[in-house]
Write a structure and sequence with these properties.
Helices cover 67% and strands 0% of the residues. The longest helix is centred in the middle third of the chain and has 65 residues. It is mainly alpha-helical.
Length: 322
């Protein structure tokens, strides 16, 4: 978790290294943003909307960290030693959830950057389409008005060249589109999985902390038992930090690597045919006494702690995603 066992000790400094803030501001590019070629207009809207989504998750992460600090400060002023300690420890978990949200936003932004490659390629292809269409229109106009014009031969030769250039551009566009579409959303789904699994880890340890708070009612005049779970609460945070540190990307039931190999072979076969033609022309284990349906599990409470971190099967390798 790369943070202390208390938020209060960091009042004068930032909690932990966070994802660098993304700079935003006025630019000439923002003025030209709404003026896009027809071919790249829809993807431009996708990229722009994703940027708004990234900003929303960054804001959510900051709000979560603010709430964590406020909860810790409230618990301190209650005068209840147990509430003070548990609220502070829960605040640490909430703050780490906020940091995970900012990391998730960074992953979304990287995936968004990959989509820009498709958009830029679409923008570069648009002129070749327009040039080919313009020449074809001019030929049709001359055939109607001046069918014997000598310019027709020149224009038809230009059309052949324009069609050849456009053919290359279109092939490049479809190759880049398929490749970068897979790359972008594979990276996004990978960061979704990472965020979800780490949130589960933190949430399970947060519930373990709550189990350390005795909420049995006391009658007026009776003294509540002294709080003795401070060491156990610190151990919960240590366990959470260890689980986050040892977390790794695991292969899931969807064998994306196998499908990539199959699709690559199929693409090579189709590409070879085209060239020939052209030459002729995880359920996670709960910890802390909770069952899968959210209820209490008396057996689990008496058993030893089991890390909720998903572990990889023997022989599997972690798939690295950009």
């Amino acid at each position: 978790m790369n943070r202390s066992l208390s938020i209060r000790s960091n009042k004068g400094s930032s909690g932990s290294p966070s994802t660098p803030a993304r700079r935003k501001g006025f630019s000439f590019a923002s003025l030209r943003g709404s003026i896009q070629p027809e071919l790249s207009r829809r993807l431009y809207q996708v990229i722009k909307s994703t940027n708004n989504l990234v900003s929303a998750h960054e804001a959510a992460g900051r709000e979560r960290e603010t709430i964590a600090k406020q909860l810790s400060e409230w618990g301190e002023q209650t005068g209840d030693e147990a509430v003070s300690d548990i609220s502070d420890k829960v605040g640490v978990v909430l703050s780490e959830l906020g940091a995970q949200e900012e990391t998730y936003a960074h992953g979304l932004d990287e995936a968004r950057g990959v989509l820009k490659t498709i958009r830029n390629t679409e923008k570069s292809v648009q002129p070749s389409r327009d040039a080919k269409g313009k020449i074809a229109d001019e030929i049709q106009r001359l055939k109607l008005k001046e069918p014997q014009s000598t310019r027709l031969v020149i224009l038809e030769q230009e059309l052949v060249r324009a069609e050849a250039e456009n053919l290359v551009a279109e092939a490049q566009l479809t190759n880049i589109t398929r490749n970068k579409l897979k790359e972008a959303y594979d990276a996004e789904f990978a960061t979704v999985i990472e965020r979800a699994e780490k949130q589960i880890i933190l949430a399970k340890h947060g519930r373990r902390l709550l189990e350390l708070l005795d909420d049995s009612p006391v009658t007026p005049g009776d003294a509540r038992r002294a709080y003795e779970n401070g060491a156990a609460a610190r151990q919960v945070l240590n366990d959470a930090e260890d689980d986050l540190r040892t977390w790794e990307k695991n292969a899931d039931s969807y064998n994306s690597l196998g499908r990539d190999d199959d699709l690559a072979r199929a693409s090579m076969a189709v590409g070879a045919d085209a060239d020939s033609s052209r030459s002729e022309t995880p359920v996670m284990t709960g910890a802390g006494g909770f069952s899968a349906d959210g209820g209490h599990n008396p057996v689990a409470r008496d058993s030893a702690y089991v890390s909720p971190t998903p572990t990889s099967h023997d022989g599997e390798e972690s798939a690295s995603r950009g």
